[in-house]
Amino acid sequence: MPLPSSSSAAAIAAGPAASPLAARSLRGRPRSSPFFVKCQRVDPLKLRAVNGAPPCIPVPDSSLWTPITMPVFGDNKVRKDGTRLRIFSGTANPSLSQEIASYMGLELGKINIKRFADGEIYVQLQESVRGCDVFLVQPSCPPANENLMELLIMIDACRRASAKNITAVIPYFGYARSDRKSQGRESIAAKLVANMITEAGANRVLVSDLHSSQAMGYFDIPVDHVYGQPVILDYLASKTICSNDLVVVSPDVGGVARARAFAKKLSDAPLAIVDKRRHGHNVAEVMNLIGDVKGKVAVMMDDMIDTAGTIAKGAELLHQEGAREVYACCTHAVFSPPAIERLSSGLFQEVITTNTIPLKEDKNFPQLTILSVANLLGETIWRVHDDCSVGHEPYSTLDID
Fold first, then answer.
1. Angle 256-265/229-237 helices, nearest 10 degrees?
2. I need a labelling partner for 279 at 20 to 30 A (CA). Which of 101, 160, 265, 353 fits?
3. Are 137 and 241 members of one domain?
């Protein structure tokens, strides 16, 4: 091993500031920079042979060196609970976000969302998400455009804050009904919204009860699709309804697969179908009924109720055909006017829905029952974070084709 020259030994003894490498690395930095380190100079070493032995380099006294403390920027990305998982809530449904965080034993992340006087949206994260697995809970419910834009800005803020993974948790996916061209020169807004979420920087999407399952193919990123029916099934199972008296009714032909899977889980109940002809948007006309409902308890199952025109006309037909009671079940309670008047008119024994969309007090009525999907979404978030399968019981996909 070659011995160091006298110039090298002098550089070592003089400390980092005297070495050529340190000089190059510090060149151009102002002395006020937090990375500029001033070290005390040590006298050059005098190398000499003693009794013909090779020269030795004495170790400098440690008291001559000043310990260096590197500056710390921001807070630690690992919380006291030891997880890098972060949940942030938009302004669309903060109560659901809080329920999800409570189920998971976490606290909602600190975020500042406000609107300027001209309507523009401002988003700032109040804590570090660098290297974290971030979940943003924000349904695109009415006002759909406001909430969708807020979600996009939240995703962009997390991406620019160096989050490792960003998952958009969308309990209600707006524009899902615009999933195909039924007439010429129409837009497919569901595909457009999927592109916007992807381009904003989301790495994954978690949605609940899409209007049509093929909308998952509009995303170029992984999509976890969960169903709210298990929550409704658990509630119906707690009611004293004889399984022989049950019949599940699909309010239209498009919902047959959903109703069939629901009936299979509900004691393998028989299935009936309401055939309707739609003459315009939010306008439906019932034509006839396929199946037998006479003397039975009819459970109408749909993914959403908007103006309640379809399900109300279907309930009228079921009563005409001799149904003893009619229950209306849906995952998303959009409840656009005049839905409240139609649902509270006495056609339904009970209207069962979930809290994917927040309902104001003026939309409440005696027959309404709201169930929470917080446990369903919270368990799914944990499984996504842990890279586990989300198709687990009792929150499976219900074998929907």
1. 40
2. 353
3. no
User: Looking at beta carbons, which pairs linking 91-94 to residues 24 or more positions away fall under 8 Å?
Assistant: 91/147, 91/150, 92/138, 92/139, 92/140, 92/141, 92/147, 92/150, 92/358, 93/137, 93/138, 93/139, 93/141, 93/171, 93/355, 93/356, 93/357, 93/358
Distance CA 57, CA 193 (A): 69
311 domain-assigned: yes
| Residue with token string 């455009």 | 145
pLDDT at 100 over 90: yes
What is the C-alpha to C-alpha distance for residues 64 and 62, in angstroms, rounded to an integer? 5
Residue 265 placed within a domain: yes
Q: How do residues 176-218 score in pLDDT, each as one tens digit?
A: 999 999 889 999 999 999 999 999 999 999 999 999 888 899 9
Q: What are phi and psi of 290, to 5 degrees?
A: -105, 110
288 lies in the same domain as 325: yes
**Residue 8 domain-assigned (yes or no):** no
Give yes or no: residues 201 and 306 share one domain.
no
What residue spans of 37-188 are helical by DSSP H? 94-104, 144-160
pTM (2 decimals)? 0.78
Sheet holding 283-290, edge to edge: 283-290, 271-280, 246-250, 297-305, 325-333, 350-354, 368-371
Asked whether the beta carbons of 245 and 269 are under 8 A apart, the reply is no
Tens-place pLDDT, residues 336-349: 999 999 999 999 99
Q: Tell me, yes or no, whether 21 lies in a domain.
A: no
Average pLDDT over residues 111-115: 97
Tell which residue, 127, 146, 100, has the closest CA to residue 356.
Answer: 100
Whether the Cβ atoms of residue 202 and residue 166 lie closer than 8 Å to each other: yes
Question: CA angle, corner 312, sides to 308 and 317, nearest 5?
Answer: 155
pLDDT band at 31 (very low <50, low <70, confident <90, very high): very low
